[in-house]
Amino acid sequence: MTEIWRFAALGLGAGGLYALAALGLVLVYRGSGVVNFAQGAVGMIGAYAYFEARLEHHLPQAISVLLGIVTSALLGALFHLLILRRMQGASALARIVATLALLVVLQSAVLIAYGPLPKVVPSMLPIEPVSIFGAQIGQDRIYIFAIVMAATLALWVLYRFTTFGIATSAVAENPRAAAALGVSPHLIAAANWAIGSALGGLAAVLLIPITGLGTANLTYLVIPVLAAAVVGRFSSFPLTVLAGLGIGVAQSEVTRYVTAPGWGTAVPFVLVTVVLLARGKSVAGKDESFGRMPRLGSGRIQPVWLLVGVAVTLFCIWVVLPMPWVNALQAQILGTIILMSFVVVTGYAGQLSLMQLGFAGVGALASGWLVASHGWPFEIALVVGVLTAIPIGVVVGLAGVRTRGVYLAILTLGLAISLEAVVFGNSDLAGGPTGYNVGDTTVLGIDVNGLFYPKRYATFTLIVLALVGCVVANLRRSRAGRRLIAVRTNERAAAALGISVTEAKLYAFILGGMIAALGGILLAFRSPLLQLTGFAGLQSVTAMQNAVLGGAGTPIGPLSGSGFQPDSLGQQIFSFLGPNVALWLGLVSGAGLLYMLTIAPDGLAFTMMPREVRAQRERARARRLAARGLATATEDAPAPVADPPRASGPVDRHRVEPLTLEMDAVTVRFGGVVALNGLTLRVEPGEIVGLIGPNGAGKSTCIDAITGFNTPASGEIRLGGERIDRWARERRARAGLGRSFQSLELFEDLTVRENLLAACDERDLLAYATNLVVPGRDTFTPAALAAIESFGLGAYLDVRVEDLDYALRRMLAVARAAAGGHSVLLLDEPAAGLGDVQTRRLGEVLRTLADDHGMAIFLVEHNIDMVLRNCDRVYALDFGTLIGAGTADEIRSNPAVVEAYLGTSRFTADHAPAEPTGGVR
After folding, report:
1. What is residue 647's predicted lDDT score, i.e. its pLDDT?
2. pLDDT tens column, 853-907
3. C-alpha to C-alpha distances, 525 to 360, 371, 374, nearest whole angstrom
4. Chain centroid to CA 176: how far?
5. Alpha helices in 444-556, H assignment, sequence order
6. pLDDT, averaged across the chain
7. Which of 280-289, 305-314, 417-426 has the highest mean pLDDT?
8. What distance lies between CA 611 and its chain's CA centroid?
9. Which residue, 852, 786, 796, is CA-closest to 819?
10. Residue 312 has what pLDDT?
11. What angle do CA 911, 915, 916 make, to 5 degrees?
């Protein structure tokens, strides 16, 4: 027991420093809404400043510590003011990538300046042991614990009782409102970045006597720090401190009692995984958005240009390039293949994965073990190694179903670092100190050993790259790709169309993992001696940086982004910089990405297009939009479209399957609030039923309960007589429930055509395999064609949603819901923001859908004129309780409805009341 207590007490020292740095992370997040993945690296800079002041220039201890803390504080404040402030309005992805780029820049700079070997730094605190409960513990651990407790108390007082703390809370709650009150969000954010970074610097200065001063020790500090902040929800000081202390103790005990290497490093990952999966949910919430994702390429393949590019590259390999350049080209090809995995996972599916190099390493390990230890042929081992990524992709994908955004990035980074520590760094698993001896690599009987026949190996990898590029491009143009893009853009809207969010995320991680594993295998088999040192956890961060720098939304992006990879053509070009050229490339690419994120966040692939070609395309696009009554997205005053054109011919009389929607005594509660109280209603095929009531009455809650976006506490929901309230939301959509959203929730990255195709595409699983080879033809169903005609969208099919005016976007939102061929259509305020002419036109279209197509339409709307003119029956809610039901005339004269909502008993359809205000819907 004494031994357990001793190691627990030792762990409190490191845990206290984790907690101190994590408190800084919490402050940065509270002040700016950004999770700083470079917290350990920023602290590292402060530690090196302390080292320079104290050990190189022999300044007094107190001054040296102060210089270290101030250096980190200035770095944090400058990063916000020079980079993040210029990224105002950027997506969460862009801000996360910015902190990752800062991490790479700082790590590369320190390695260039000081080298990789750690430095021994004497402790500034007393280290003599003292006896506590029978265990000998160094005094420095006690001092560290006391410093952490004092800092926590000081921070609590500062942010609870001071004007600055109140201003920080105000900015975190509502930056615009705070600015209106005279509080500058940017100054508050910069101040919190300075304080948070200072805490990181203090933690690093206190930690380096324990761990040594080195880049690896301090940059990897980010994992336990992130884990502690996650447990504290990036808001609670006490929870964050307790989590940091707990991680330190657990690491110390594991290091003492677990003999297998690396498990101490994995402790924070295990903790953060349990916490995030327990807190997560399967579909994003209503207000949960990751912001704008990378711009997407078209995915169109030009076979002639592809063949020309391959032929020119082969000519360079065999005729033009000297051997060192062939090797560099070979490395860049392999780096491109690995970066292609980011296009699938991040570009198409919108999942921020920081463990693609982990997939690559697992594939290389499996193939190397099969070849070296069991004598398998390379071709078969290659296939098995790629397939090895599937179970890991399933595990990560399931985690991605429960987490998203920054939390998924934290989880995957922790997994990558844990794989490095537990698997790749374990000589028993990695083939011993020298790795696996795989011998000569042969493909179809041809020796393509990358060491002795680099031209052959470069040719082989070029062919593989061409095939992978075609697969990724095909996916972009296919219905499987549209599912991924729908999920990345809006999980709620995708689920409402019957797209399985779980399937899409699992597929993205599996396919992305297989591509990364393929690239990792080919990279490792360049040499007869296969080693796994190239798959370190933080190298996934560098790979993500290069993928975003090149352009993660298009297969062209990895071609340029891979130029910054180690041993690539970029390194060969700048080889005159000496042995640190790879570090210089990392530094330059990180700095370049920080700059590009402020001006061109979509990557080099979208900026390298010749200026005149871009200008011609923009002019042609502007002419097309102008001819259709639209304005370009770059114009200051977009021309509104008052009324979309009507169909030029008869509308297809496509009939849907007649199904009746019923709610029977449905109650929905949110905590102690009853949002719906025993609601009973019925919607028959071919009729329009309205639901009205003031804000907060429960109207949107009703639609969410029917479509599966919230769970009733009691009651039943039936469709066609079959109970559906226990079904998943995707199953309800496929059974015949379609809906629109009050906030539109369109797929902004896609065209009108692609939005409608996403609604009417088949939901077959086979497409996830066949679309990689044959994208398939884009075919509208009869329901989709009818929707295009009814809503007058035929002239706008090839226009991106972001280029549509508001009225057309409203029409498209309803048209997309109708295009799915659903039996029941639930519309949440479809006329919000439309003019009288547009509203009447929408009412006519809905009447057509009900009369001619047999749809049952459930209309939630504040425009009473539209409801009473078009609805066969109307229900009225107030505070979740039904207060009236009947025809339009009956509702007009219902005293309870008049008092709660209409406002006058003499209300007529020609004199609609103003929209009620106040409350939460």
Report:
1. 38
2. 999 999 999 888 899 999 999 999 999 999 999 998 899 888 988 888 876 444 4
3. 12, 10, 16
4. 25
5. 454-476, 479-489, 491-496, 501-524, 537-550
6. 87
7. 305-314
8. 31
9. 786
10. 95
11. 125
- The half-sphere exposure of 429 on its side-chain side, counting CA atoms within 13 A, is 18
Instruction: Check the CA dihedral 759-761-765-769 and report its sign.
Output: negative
Q: Residue 914: its pLDDT value, please?
A: 39
Dihedral sign for Cα 541, 543, 546, 547, please.
negative
- Of the chain, the percentage scoring pLDDT greater than 90 comes to 55
The answer to whether the beta carbons of residues 820 and 497 sit under 8 Å apart is: yes
The residues, any chain, with a CB within 8 Å of residue 632's CB and separated by 6 or more, are 618, 621, 622, 625, 638, 803
> What's the average model confidence in pLDDT over 509-534?
94
At 332, the amino acid letter reads Q
**Domain 303-606 and domain 661-746+805-902 have a common topology:** no
Q: How far apart are CA 196 and CA 237, in angstroms?
A: 13
Which two three-digit tokens encode residue 845? 């279209």
Q: What is the pLDDT of residue 642?
A: 35
| Amino acid symbol at 333 | I
Q: Tokens 């395999």 — which residue?
A: 769
Integer angstrom CA distances of residue 130 from 126, 135, 248, 734: 11, 8, 20, 68
Instruction: Indicate the pLDDT class of residue 911, thresholds 50, 70 and 90.
Output: very low
pLDDT for res 679: 94
Q: Is the four-CA dihedral 401, 407, 413, 418 of positive or negative sign?
A: negative
Contact (Cβ atoms closer than 8 angstroms) between residue 702 and residue 691: yes
**CATH code for the structural domain at 303-606:** 1.10.3470
Three-state DSSP class for residue 731 = helix
* Topology given in CATH for the domain delimited by 2-257: ABC transporter involved in vitamin B12 uptake, BtuC (1.10.3470)
* The pLDDT of residue 648: 38
DSSP letter, residue 862: S
| 3-state secondary structure (DSSP) of residue 161 | helix
Its CATH architecture, for the domain 661-746+805-902, is 3-Layer(aba) Sandwich (3.40)
**Which residue shows structure tokens 């504080």?**
73
With 0-12 / 13-18 / 19 or more C-beta atoms within 10 angstroms meaning exposed / middle / buried, residue 798 is exposed
Query: 244, 250, 228, 208: which is closest to 16 by C-alpha?
Result: 244
Report pTM: 0.89
Q: In whole angstroms, what is the distance from residue 79 CA to residue 36 CA?
A: 11
Q: Where are the domains of the chain?
A: 2-257, 303-606, 661-746+805-902
Beta bridge partners of 662: 682, 718
Q: Which pLDDT belongs to residue 288?
A: 59
> 700: which residues sit within 8 A by CB, 6+ positions away?
742, 828, 860, 921
Hey, what are 320's tokens? 């033009």
Higher pLDDT, 101 or 218: 101
Residue 245 makes CB contacts below 8 A (sequence gap 6+) with 12, 15, 16, 18, 19
Q: Considering Cα of 709, then 714, then 719, then 722, what sign does the dihedral take?
A: positive
* pLDDT score recorded for residue 2: 66
What single letter denotes the amino acid at residue 445? G
Phi, psi of 378 (to 5 degrees): -60, -40
